[in-house]
Amino acid sequence: MKAYHADWSIDDRLKAHEGIVIDDGEAWRYEYTHKDAQGHYDLWYRHGDPLARKPLAEEKTLRDYFAGQALAGMITTAAAPCLNGLDGSEPLVAKYAYVMADAMLQARSKSDG
């Protein structure tokens, strides 16, 4: 459900972001804010609705998240700033980000068990 900012008071939007919005007896949870041709809106979804479209952030696996964090760390701690790329070694750096993510998942499973 799209809820355009122009249709809500600031107080109502802030209250809604803190929890759940009830509309016609259905509970909706805040997902994210975006802008289209009609203006800024908040996207809401019905909690537990298998047909609700989930944004990319929810499609990302824990492995993807760990790899992204590892990649950010590798790039920011490189000997020289990587603003212009990694001189063709990007595929290798991306591969090792997932190697690190797999190691984090393995360590995580050992600590859970």
Which descriptors would you attach to this protein?
alpha+beta, 4-stranded antiparallel beta sheet, 23% strand, single chain, 113 residues
Short description:
The protein has helices spanning 10-17, 56-59, 62-76, 90-112, and strands spanning 2-4, 20-23, 26-36, 39-46.
How would you characterize the overall build of this protein?
The structure is a single chain. A hairpin with a 2-residue loop joins strand 2 and strand 3 (26-36). Helix 3 (62-76) crosses helix 4 (90-112). With 113 residues, the chain is an alpha+beta fold. The chain is 44% helix and 23% strand. The longest helix is centred in the last third of the chain and has 23 residues, at 90-112. The protein contains 4 helices and 4 strands, in the order βαβββααα. The mean pLDDT is 75. It has a 4-stranded antiparallel β-sheet, with no helix packed on it.
